[in-house]
Amino acid sequence: MPWLKQGDAAANHPIVLAAVEMEDADDRILNECFGFVGRCATQAAAYEQDYIITVGTARHMAGSLARYNALIAAAKYCGYLTEVQVEIDGEQRKAFKLVEDNDLFHMILKAEREWNNQRKRDTRNPELTVRVRMRDGDACRYCGKSVAWGDNKSGRGATYDHINPGQGGTVDTLVVCCRECNGKRGDDPESTWKTLPVPAEPLYGPATVAFIEKHGTPVQPSYTRTPTTPAATVHPAAPAATEPPAATEYGSTPESNPDPGHRYPGSRYVGTGRDGTGQAGKGGSGQEAHPPTRPQPQNKTRRRRPRSRGRN
Ligand SMILES: [Zn+2]
Asked: Per-residue pLDDT tens for 214-253?
């Protein structure tokens, strides 16, 4: 994800248009101010300043001291930024803080980026994930429903979730989680969501068997085919089935957790796939590809082409 995004409606954002309301507005101030602040924002993002612009950066971006004074006055008037004090090298100095408005500029904060990187490291670390998947199998630890590894779109797609968002994962704090629960739970450190007990007999589908065996521990599959239709409930202790149970086998959803209510197949629900960050599609899905089978259209009738007017 880029470190700085500009909203697609930014050109006509009220803050941008406010420049023409200034008493001493001239023909150039609106675009000049937008360009000046945009360059400042780019610099702030590039150097991970979290919306803070130093006076030196602002002067450099303005091009001259005379324009700096005019542009800072305009930017303050419009609401692009406010004056703040920041500590630089142990000294309190004047600086400017850009308005945090995602319709104008959205900057990835330094802490947010570091957390994203930590999540990726954890969900790609087999030292963690093999043990997590051996323990949890193919069931979400929040709702108990079976998950599909390699499904990067639907609510039942498999992800990993950090029980303690913002903190590096351990085997104890990383769990298998469906995309729907992961998206709903979000990144709230005060979350009251509870995990289900560790399954006594985890389900191992083909993707998980292959993943675990690849890292040196053979396991027996509980089912042999990634489901494409609502599956009947099958006890994991039963002989290898073709599909995993669709509903929880390990107890009902904890009362504090909302029931995600997966839809099958090809669910149109697309969770954010977040692993507690708010970043779409970053839920750390398994890498082994088992693309969900799309339902084939049935009894599709071909529309006849109208006859051309010239024919009788
Ligand atoms: Zn779930």
From this structure: 988 777 887 776 555 444 344 444 455 565 555 444 445 6
C-alpha–C-alpha distance, residues 104 and 280, integer Å: 20
Rounded to two decimals, the pTM is 0.59
**Distance (Å, rounded) from C-alpha 245 to C-alpha 308?**
55
- How many angstroms is it from 77 CA to the middle of ligand 1? 48
| 304 CA distance to ligand 1 middle (Å) | 46
CATH of the domain at 72: 1.10.10
**Residues in the 5 Å CB sphere of ion ligand 1:** 140, 142-143, 178, 181
**Token reading at 12:** 């006509």
Q: Are 44 and 148 in a shared domain?
A: no
Question: Distance between CA 71 and CA 96 in Å, rounded?
Answer: 13
Distance 128 CA to ligand 1 centre (A): 20
Let me know if residue 187 belongs to a domain. yes
Residues 63, 90 share a domain: yes
311 is a domain residue? no
Q: How far is the CA of 181 from the centre of ligand 1 (A)?
A: 4
What is the spatial distance between Cα 220 and Cα 243, in angstroms, rounded to a whole number? 14
**Chain segment 94-103, per-residue pLDDT in tens:** 999 999 998 9
User: What is the length of the chain?
Assistant: 312
Q: How far is the CA of 49 from the centre of ligand 1 (A)?
A: 36
- Residue 84's domain comprises 4-107
Same domain, 283 and 200: yes
Q: Is residue 307 part of a domain?
A: no
- For residue 180, the CA-to-ligand 1 centroid distance in Å is 6
